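We modelled each protein-ligand pair independently. The example shown here corresponds to the flavin mononucleotide entry; the chain sequence is given first, followed by the ligand as SMILES.
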Amino acid sequence: MGDHQEKFIVQQEILEAGLAELDPLAKDYLIGGAESEATLLRNRAAIERRAFRPRVLVDVSQLSMETKIVTRMSQLPVFLAPVGALHRFHSQGDSAAGFAANKMGIPMFFGSLSQNAPSEMRASTKHDAIYQLYVRGDSNWVDEQVRQVEDIGFDGLCLTVDSAVYSRRERDMLRRFSKPWRKEYSPNALNDQAGFTWKDIARIRRNCKLPIILKGIASHEDARLAVEHGVDVIYVSNHGGRQLDHARGTLDALDEIKTAVSNQTKLFIDGGFMRGSDIVKALALGADAVGIGRLYCLALAAVGEAGVIRMLEILKEELETALALVGASSISALSPDHVVAEPFLVTQPHLFSAFPLMETK
Ligand SMILES: Cc1cc2nc3c(=O)[nH]c(=O)nc-3n(C[C@H](O)[C@H](O)[C@H](O)COP(=O)(O)O)c2cc1C
């Protein structure tokens, strides 16, 4: 690992190394969003429009970032979000990311579109391993999948609910890129997915003993329904801007959802979080944990497991710096008063606007 500590001292270097490893198809697939990519930009805009209201003369000599995210204590308030095609970015795919999550003591969400066998993914980490399921069959098929997820020993079930239909990703369409991992398990798979409703959530809740995480909630109405259906975690997400175009930035959706559920469930969020300071904003505004997507995909593309570890080490340093300078010695010391909406944008939001020194061409 020593080599990578010298080679990569800021995230930008890891991102550049990752981008350089990807062929044009994989690069566009990774960085792209749906249609006009407005949602993707709004994710960044929502983060960049918040400024800190720091407090000073607070003792920050002992910083604690440990927190229980799903079932175990996590070293950071961060987890690796589900990404269905990690093998497209590195030959060891999910296992490499799982090893890195294990080493850094944080949860990993494994995607059901992965090429790795679920048991292999589970075995890659002793920390929380969550299985993210896409509906690709009827209720019997879904119930059987849930049983297998329990039997294999995953720590939680994540149902992604922002994908009733597959979006139009025009970067991929322009390249005529048809994704081999878009598995359809039955002739009706896409119909089953589009017909999946709260009734199914109620049935799954009755039968599933694991914590259930609903990924893709973006309104207070759905957050309340999730609470009524006994969901354990509301995961505020717009799929990194890859599904509905012109959705709100997730940080802009957090407040109404936090108010609606008022501590009845945990709240996770993702979408555009690239730096420690981005994450501190979400925690201050009420999220319990923050998921990262493209950032770890690029670290994986750069040098596999070691890249994800190094990226997380840098993220940890950034988190510590942001916490200390904002005047909070722990996550629980953060409050909405540490953040204020600020209309003036310092940089024009885009996927890599957290790294203004980076050449993105
Ligand atoms: C290449 C790629 C593949 C993804 N695949 C899935 C998936 O299979 N299931 C899922 O729930 N979300 C998937 N997502 C969405 C992520 O879980 C997450 O919501 C998003 O990447 C967060 O935004 P960020 O990339 O800006 O951090 C994918 C995202 C990317 C970039």
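The mean pLDDT is 95.
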